[in-house]
Amino acid sequence: PLAMALLDLDHFKQVNDRHSYATGDEVLLRFTAILRDNARASDVVVRYGGEEFLLVMPQTTLPQALILCERLRAAVESYPWYEVDPSLVQTVSIGVADNAHRDLRAAIAAMDAALHDAKRGGRNRVVAAPQALEAVQAEG
């Protein structure tokens, strides 16, 4: 099994606009530290672009990935962002898919769709790609 997640810092543009680019850089540094501290040794974290990151989780089923990603989401939400700036609050939205697609482009599209669902659903949440979630529900 293989699972992947696309993580996007919520309202990150506002961090740069309201606080400063230096604050935005510090948020990115601390976010990557949170990812490193909560990911497993076998996981791979890649900056995908801007404030988006890709988390590749080998030997991980979708249910396991959802648990790990929820832990990451909670760690970001509960982090003492006030240490960076007293008025700063930061959350992350996460889209998760597994390798059921057997095609990297399809998996990325599925993660992206799940990430957009997380954003539309209010942000600060973990959402599984619909096809992946349907497969898990059919198994269970």
Pattern of helices and strands:
EHHEEHEHEH
How many alpha or pi helices?
5
What fraction of the residues are assigned to beta strands by DSSP?
Answer: 15-25%
Coarse morphology: globular
Stretches where pLDDT falls below 50 for ≥5 residues?
none
Biggest beta sheet summary: 5 strands, mixed
Task: Record the strand order, biggest sheet.
Answer: 2-3-1-4-5
Helix content: 40-55%
Question: Distance between the terminal alpha carbons, to the nearest Å?
Answer: 16 Å
What's the overall average pLDDT, rounded? Answer: 91
What is the radius of gyration?
15 Å
User: Given the helix and strand composition, which structural class is it?
Assistant: alpha+beta
Q: How many E strands?
A: 5
Model description:
- The chain is of the alpha+beta class.
- It has five helices and five strands, in the order βααββαβαβα.
- It has a five-stranded mixed sheet.
- Helix 4 links the parallel strand 4 (92-98) and strand 5.
- Helix 1 runs antiparallel to helix 2 (21-38) and helix 2 (21-38) crosses helix 3 (62-78).
- The longest helix is centred in the N-terminal third of the chain and has 18 residues, at 21-38.
- The mean pLDDT is 91.
